[in-house]
Amino acid sequence: MHSTFHARDQQTPNASTYGTSYDSTHTDLSINSREVIIADQWLVLGKIGEGSFGEVFEVRDIHTNKYYAIKRETMKIKRPQLHDENAMYEIIAGGEGIPRCHWYGQFDGFDCIVMDLLGPNLGHVRHNVSSMELDIAVDLACQMVSIVEHIHNRGVIVRDVKPDNFLFPANCQLPEAEMVESMDEFGMPVTTYKKSTCRQVFTEQWGIDKPKIFAVDFGLACYWRDPETGKAHPDSKKHIRSKTGTARYASINVHKGRSHSRRDDVESIGYILLDLLLGTLPWTGIHAKNSKAGWDRMRQLKMDTFMSDLCAGLPQGVLEFVEYPRSLQFTDQPDYEKMRRFLQGCLPGGAYSDIIKSPFGGEAKPTDNYDIIQLELKQLQQKQLEEQRQRELNHGQHGNDGDNNDRHSMFAMDDLTHQLPASTVPEIKPSSQVRKDSAASQSSLKKLLKKNKAKKVGWNTWKHDQAPWNPKTDWTNDEDPALSMAKSWGDDQKVGAWGASPGRQDQNGLWDQSKDVKEAGWGNTQPSWNAAPTTHQTHTVSWKKTEDIKETNWDGKQAPNDSWRKKADDIRETEWNNKQPTWNDTPCHQQAHNDTWRKTDVTMETKWAETLPPAPQPTPDDSWKVQGGDSIKPASSYQRTPDSSKNDKRHRFKLENSGGWQQQDDTISNFDTTNTSWRTGQPGTVEQKRGSWQSYPTDEAPLQQHRPQQQRRHHFSQPHQRTQQPSSTNTKSRYGDEAPEQRPYRSDAKNSGVSTQGDASQVDGWQRKPGSNAWQQKR
Ligand SMILES: Nc1ncnc2c1ncn2[C@@H]1O[C@H](COP(=O)(O)OP(=O)(O)OP(=O)(O)O)[C@@H](O)[C@H]1O
């Protein structure tokens, strides 16, 4: 039965001592150093772990007093993945070794998943024991095979199988090394640490012979099988341009740039098994000039290492287990039972228990003789490096690919958790022509797509950052450490959205134009969009029909507020409704639909090429004028916030000096007029000059600086940025079947009900048409 460890009282006898103490990173800091209760239920206790993108905290359910873990990810991140991870947890729920999720939602600008609380991970434990006995490693590997088998049976592949993603139960504490004081040859005191063996830890400290493990972190997981057709995804055979997962445990096929399939997950388990038994791998600890060089070197080492050399001293079954996945084809289903047989056969008396002879001669080494193994591995590694150096010298390539020994200019590959920039692919400079609504731009877009095709972009590759129309500035966001980190790592570490979300739409990215990709051209003239008046939009849009895609009819007043619906046999159609709420809201934006559509079996994307005029800058000294000229008050005294509690179009207004909020529906007629000389009235009586309002997503977090910047980024950006909602109350799926909402920068005028006549008729190059609400560009 699936056992869970989500509450202290459900744990083992030594429940009082377990918990977060296993993790040295535990800080006892709750978010913002104050009591934080998430969703009125989960009291944050302290941080217990973190990965490249997520942070994990221990929380207590204040209603039941049970303990859980919460993983959070900032919603500002360029490529959020917790949402997908939650979806993956749902898909694989109920399996042995899969933690249960209890809540998913947004809090304080973070996506959060509450799940069963677990303990130290396999990597931690291996690091803290002197050696791991064969039967223990075999048992753990068998559990991993079964967990991965379950996940594969649900149509999903993990793509990041590594020791750090297998966790022991929460009642298991990280083993501590025993401190031993002694004297060195000069009589000086020396402190050494003696680690226990794994068996000692399990039996003596944890009181369990064979602890259970649980898999976590499905941020990179994706479907290997199309849930609609039940067949392997057609695109998944393509080459990927950037590698996914953790280099140390990546399969050779992934190193070669092939898409992940089930065989790669099980090959990674083989490397984990070797790591557990040997304590290291020949390619552990290597340094490289850049991550690409590191991945390349690891690939070379993996390919050059005879597994029989590596497995010397280990039972034959280990070798069989490691080599078996390498023989699998892309679509092959691994024979999990056979893999477990190899493992079980390793145990004394088993069918695969013969010990493999060491290539260095002499007796076979015992598996717990760590020093000898380390020495032999070092020799092996040296030998391989020497051979490689020699090869390079012969080819006159020495030093060209990061294989020099200048360690100062290198970084440790072990630090590299995810993946590589596609540094071999030349970046395509953004072309201004691409954004133009002209026939020329259509053809240049096609050229770019064609170029991209030549670059072997695969269906499960995150391609956003390589989008030719997406200039580098798109990544510039110094305020967001997560983004700058992503940048420094090569922007396509975290793949997943493509593969992960069949049936959902990701409005971002660049796509390749291959058989299953459909393109729809947009007519060359979209005068109404360019002019962007609020009311008169006429879509003279032409569609190019390719292959089996259906055309979408436009009936004059459409907005990209569409929903997709699947018709028959793999054909999707766009339904456009006639409302244009979002586009209408943005009179000061120039929008050009220079779009292409891509359809794959499972996803569809929209690329909105957008040219926006510079966002209007608020001028703090702008004033409010009351019609009739009674009084003038600095607009900065007023703040406006969307009423996030109501999540509707009403706004609250704050008169700074008077304190207190006043909520209005669509007017500001009830302002506290006693405090100031303000006179308010019905819509139409107050004039507004630009920049008068300051928008706040919540009562606390000013957005004023942020929003214009975001808007400027839209100048270049992919549409998903527009879909990001700053409000913490936004729980809407980013993959929902809607087009991205246009967040109006100047929604104040419309939403507040304040008339925008008079002075407000001019906004940074735009002006109201005399006598009408329509906007037109200044000439
Ligand atoms: N349910 C849990 N209970 C206790 N600790 C957890 C739990 N989930 C994760 N952790 C700890 O937090 C660490 C980071 O979690 P996780 O791997 O999910 O984050 P990540 O950012 O996705 O990591 P990665 O860099 O591998 O992608 C894990 O290695 C583990 O030690």
Automatic annotation (TrEMBL):
ATP binds at K71. It comes from the Eukaryota. Keywords: ATP-binding, Nucleotide-binding. PROSITE patterns: PROTEIN_KINASE_ATP, PROTEIN_KINASE_DOM. Residues 1-20, 383-409, 424-445, 524-545, 604-779 are annotated as: Disordered. Pfam families: Pkinase. InterPro entries: CK1_Ser-Thr_kinase (IPR050235), Kinase-like_dom_sf (IPR011009), Prot_kinase_dom (IPR000719), Protein_kinase_ATP_BS (IPR017441). This is Protein kinase domain-containing protein. It comes from Absidia glauca (Pin mould). The gene is ABSGL_11297.1 scaffold 12295.
